[in-house]
Amino acid sequence: MPTVLLGVSASISAYKAADLISQLKKKNYNVEVIMTKNSTAIIPALTLQVLSKNQVHLDVMEEATPTDINHIDLVKQADLFIIAPATANIIGKIANGIADDMLSTTALAVHDIPLLIAPAMNTYMYQHPAVQTNLNRLISYGYQVIEPKESLLACGDYGKGALADISDIITAIQELI
Ligand SMILES: Cc1cc2nc3c(=O)[nH]c(=O)nc-3n(C[C@H](O)[C@H](O)[C@H](O)COP(=O)(O)O)c2cc1C
To answer: What are the chain's domains?
Structure first.
């Protein structure tokens, strides 16, 4: 059973991670979820734990098993790493080598597996040169970007920034595993 290591960050679309996990489980993937602390304000970790049938990883300093270093061991069992949804913040942190939480720390430890990132944010945030520069940097590191959609966004603005359809994210995962 291939393992998808899924990072969830605090976009309003984080609730869609529940559907993504549920569909991946139905397709027989093992899903290990890493959430940022902020994302748990949008969707509870318990929801993603129940759907993934695995404990959700939240805190880089929480080492449940004395013989394990969680952010390294998770990577060793993963067949693909994806962040969906990815905030401007997590994109910026990974692009610049910052490792100050469980998700960004794990992201820097990932190697030799396919890397996917699905940004979701306000259209003006998405267009910001800093975000675009960071995304291009991630592409140069080997990430494949699943482009956000143009739509009426949760904030009321219209433009490119909505999380890609879950079906498109699943297709991208299936193509790479
Ligand atoms: C209701 C709400 C919705 C948000 N939606 C987004 C979003 O879609 N994309 C984004 O980049 N930031 C969004 N933010 C801002 C991020 O949550 C904020 O930058 C946060 O620091 C990101 O933390 P994280 O990257 O550690 O999850 C939102 C904030 C709030 C309060």
So the answer is: 3-176 (3.40.50.1950)
